[in-house]
Amino acid sequence: MKKEQSIRIENLTKSFGSGDSFVSVIDGASFTINKGELVALVAPSGAGKTTLLMMIGCVVDPTSGQFWLGEEKVYNNRWLTNNSRQIRREKIGFIFQAHYLIPFLNVLENVTLVPQTNKIPTKEANAHAMELLKYFDIAEKAYNKPSQLSGGQNQRVAIARALANNPQIILADEPTAALDTERSISVVKMLKKIAAEQNVAIIMVTHDERMLKYCDRVMKIEAKKIVFE
Amino acid sequence: MINLAQKDISHTLGKFIVTAMGVGMLLGIVLIMIGVYRGMMVDAEKLLKDMNVAIWVVQEDTLGPFAESSRIHEDFKDTLKVIEGIDKSQAFTFQNLQLYGLQKPVRVTAVGFNPFESINPINPTNLIKGRMLQKSHYEVVVSTETGFKLHDKIKIARNYFTVVGLTKETVSSSGEPLIYLSLKDAQELQFSSSNASIKNDRERGMSVSGDGHTVNTIAATLKAGYDAKSIAKKIATWKHLSVYTNEEQTTILTKNLVERSAKQIGLFTAILVVVSTIIIGLIIYTMTLEKMKEISIMKLIGIPDSIILKMIVQETLILGFFAFIFGNIFSHLIYDKFPKRVVLEAPDALGLFVVIILASILASFVGVGKVIHADPTVAIGG
User: Fold this and answer.
1) What three-state secondary structure class fits B167?
2) Contact B190, B183 (CB under 8 A)
3) pLDDT-based confidence at B211, cuts 50/70/90?
4) Which residues have CB under 8 Å from A205's CB, separation 6+?
5) Which of B303, B307, B380 sits opposite A54 (nearest CB)?
6) Which pLDDT score, from 0 to 100, does residue B342 have?
């Protein structure tokens, strides 16, 4: 069975400045990640992982190249939509080092904020959010504020939020950086499970090589090029 | 859709209420300032309205009796009566006094009039206790604001006066409480010299002054169908006096006397409104700064600026609205504690509401600017 592509990138480049101040960060990146895959992105500091992640996340404009989210081409040397924020809202989920939940919203509201912004009816958005919260075993905390939850519970809510808009891809920026080894392994295993069960691609930036064995593939940035192990 | 402003406010409700109360107190002061101005205008017209006369006759080339000193002879009231169109005329004196007998001396304006004639400066609706003057001497009707009670004895100059009546909210154009006494007593107070003074004058070879028939003004009412302006002009031309219609006298009091004070209050009020706007702006700026991380995250996960800006603007408007409510409550709680009249009127409050809503929208621009420039990438890359 042919795997569905989640993200496809062709010849993506990113450079800054011109003339003497010209700096190339990513040079001709090309890769495809399919739905259900957990891919680790590993590179030394300053190698361009954050830049790559922000380009994939439609936060930073690439310099050139082509870029598909699912089957939809979103970038062809320029954004093919005027509203890159709408692409993020509809097709991308984000997980950060810290949970970064909105403190004045309760758990359910945090999870439904993006779907409701996407004009999903409140009832439908709430039902989907409750399913996700049950999946992460925190449904009973649906009406609690993030300040009333433990760090681990908040991290699970943040992952539920990333899934709430049924994204093509989840970008996880060092989600285990602040955790001990045991909890890090548990989070990565959970991401692997989510990728498989929710049929979503996840790119996880990590510095921890112990986590790589739990990922389907490892993507590295070497001399501005993307290579897979 | 989730209302972010309402959620954010309820998350920090205590802080929000205290902030709104703080701004509200400032707005309350603005309302009080406007009320002081309204009070000045009411005070300026109060005595004129109570007396309800058509013409004021005063010393030539003066604006008397309230704006400038004026002295004319009492018997001119009889001359006036024969002029065609004049219905009633009566002599009055007005003078400032300081009364003793209570814990603190009380500054008052004394109105002297003949209680047996028909123009009565005491509006019966203002008399809340006791009676009108019924004797030619040593009776006084006082405003409750003086602090004196019915049957109190007040020493004025050499004589004791009995309080026979109490009036409410009767003040002079400058806001001092009024007392009413007979014309004879008032003339003696204002124009007669003491025995020691007369003796002294005699010893110095000076003529003994003290005309007991001088008054400050003659006020007159008109018969139906006569025009106050033309009669005033006629009297002024032939009798070497200044004559003002009640309308002109009102203008002298409200425009000439109160206008400078009104401008001062108006400027002070405008400054307070500007200060309130700046404070609301600073509060919103601080509130926005506190949420910058959340705003950046919201931008990153795709929440449009319009929704975030709506939150900031709504919070500012809600702050302005509650500050206005608190300001109104505050001003209504304290307005009667002021020594002079403060008049709080609904149209003024409504006007301030409009100004504060506009000021809030203006103040929200500060927060809006921060939102627009918030960097969505701060959450990525640790």
Assistant:
1) strand
2) no
3) low
4) A40, A41, A42, A49, A50, A53, A172, A173, A174
5) B380
6) 92
B312 shares a domain with B204: no
Distance from C-alpha of B325 to C-alpha of B320, rounded to nearest angstrom: 9
pLDDT of residue A72 exceeding 80, the answer is: yes
Which residue spans within B84-229 are E strands per DSSP? 86-99, 106-113, 127-130, 139-143, 153-156, 159-167, 178-182, 214-215, 217-222
Judged by average pLDDT, the poorest of A10-19, A48-57, B41-50 is B41-50
Angle (CA) B79 B81 B82, round 5°: 75
Q: How far is CA B269 from CA A32, B29, B34, B274, B337, in A?
A: 67, 9, 7, 9, 19
Q: Mutating which of A117, A171, A176 best tests the B interface, going by the most B Cβ atoms within 10 A?
A: A117
Say if residues A39 and A31 touch (Cβ distance below 8 Å): no
With a CB-CB cutoff of 8 Å, which residues 109-128 of chain A face chain B?
109, 112-114, 116-117, 122
Using a CB-CB distance cutoff of 8 angstroms, which residues of chain A are in contact with residue B382?
Answer: 97, 173-174, 177
3.50.30.40, 3.40.50.300, 2.70.150.10, 3.40.120.10: CATH of A5-228: 3.40.50.300
Q: So what's the ipTM on this one?
A: 0.91
In a domain, B251, yes or no: no
Which tokens go with B47? 């005595």
Nearest CA-CA partner of B113 in B89, B82, B86: B89
In A62-198 the beta strands, taken as DSSP E runs, fall at 64-69, 72-76, 92-95, 169-173
| Apex B71 CA angle, B68 and B73, nearest 5 | 155
Which H/E stretch holds residue B230? Answer: helix B228-239
Query: Given this model, what pLDDT does residue B280 score?
Result: 86
Cβ proximity of B138 and B147 under 8 Å:
no
A64's tokens: 């050139």
Q: Are β-strands B217-222 and B86-99 bridged in parallel, bridged antiparallel, or unpaired?
A: antiparallel
State the residue range of the domain holding B281. Answer: 4-43+260-379
> Nearest-CA distance from A14 to chain B in Å?
16
CA contacts within 13 A on the Cβ side of B55: 30
What is the distance between the alpha carbons of residues B36 and B57, in angstroms, rounded to a whole number? Answer: 30
Give chain B's domain count.
Answer: 2
Are the C-beta atoms of A90 and B276 separated by less than 8 Å? no
Beta strands in A51-110 (DSSP E): 64-69, 72-76, 92-95
Alpha-helical (H) ranges within B52-107 are: 76-81
